[in-house]
Design brief:
There is one protein chain. This protein is of the alpha/beta class. 41% of the residues lie in helices and 23% in strands. It is built from eleven helices and twelve strands. Strands 2-1-3-12-11-4-5-10-8-9 form a ten-stranded mixed beta sheet, sandwiched between helices. A two-stranded antiparallel ribbon has the order 6-7. A hairpin with a 4-residue loop joins strand 11 and strand 12. Helix 5 packs across helix 6 and helix 9 runs antiparallel to helix 10. The protein is globular, with a radius of gyration of 20 Å. The relative contact order is 0.16. The structure holds nicotinamide-adenine-dinucleotide (NAD). The site of nicotinamide-adenine-dinucleotide has 21 residues, from loops. Nicotinamide-adenine-dinucleotide binds next to loops.
Length: 342
Amino acid sequence: MPRLIPVTLIPGDGVGPEIVEATLAALDALGAPFEWDRQIAGLEGVRAAQDPLPPATLASIRRTRLALKGPLETPSGGGYRSSNVRLREEFKLYANLRPARTLVPGGRFDNVDLIVVRENLEGLYIGHEHYVQIDDDPHAVAIATGINTRAGSRRLLEYAFAHAIATGRKKVTIVHKANIMKALTGIFLETARRLYDDNYKGRIEMDTVIVDACAMKLVLNPQQFDVLVTTNLFGDILSDLVAGLVGGLGMAPGANIGAEAAIFEAVHGSAPDIAGKGLANPVALLLAAAMMLDHVKLTDMASRLRRGIDATLNADQVRTRDLGGQAGTAQFTQALVTRLQG
Ligand code: NAD
């Protein structure tokens, strides 16, 4: 019996528990050696522990350094900060990975297989914002400060290059806006160039693109990209764009990687409109689980899971409604488990 790997499991809100159960069933069918520590957060955390990120949940992640989570709702009112942002800050989750791969051919684009690596802690996301009053208008001027550091850029870029090489990627594209934001995004571009020349030249290709041109190229011909690496705000926008290229949020997994922990999740939210109806597409969280298997070096299991999802969607033609199919969550899960056991 292999040693079990402890993982914090946060079912989350809305469709979270439904897609988490589907994912656990698939991981069981694979024989994945995880030992789950179930914890609460989001609305569920507020209900049961008056805290969207209770101390026991944080303590669990501090111990396991690994988490699989469903979507979390931030209660409106009550002054709660987003649990997702707090998790990023608490565990210094500096890299956000969002792969986009065509899984159902015949959609908008075939043969897309790219990944967006986004800096997750700096840039315009640090929330240093204020208004300046002029005459009787208290909101006459709005000011936001962005901060990118050499060290923060370097840490993210090192991770991106190493991950790209380790996963057999061919090209890293640095996305920036250094023609206008010369300091804020120039530091990221300059750090990338130096790092590449010093450590990665000859091991992988690198090119650079301005973010607006990148958005256009992604929509015209996404197959030209392999690994896109960028700062926080551009990464946020581009990673939703690439999810849209390959079938939408129901198919988009994400990973948040840090020095102190790694947290894997579906990109979508709690989908309150379909929660509790057994309709949610579990593929995004299943793909996040495949990323987690890769992260703990169970790459064969990760490949088996991805092949099983592919076969269920395409050979068996079992698809949930968001993909134009008829299956519910349970029916899709059963078909996938049958594939994984076959
Ligand atoms: P959403 O992603 O929950 O839903 C957008 C649309 O996509 C809805 O029509 C929904 O039914 C559909 N959808 C989402 N996931 C699906 C799935 N697995 N299968 C089929 N259809 C799916 O976005 P929203 O409605 O803007 O947000 C709802 C809540 O989720 C909000 O409270 C938000 O703060 C939270 N949220 C959490 C996360 C996270 O924890 N990572 C991310 C985004 C939003």
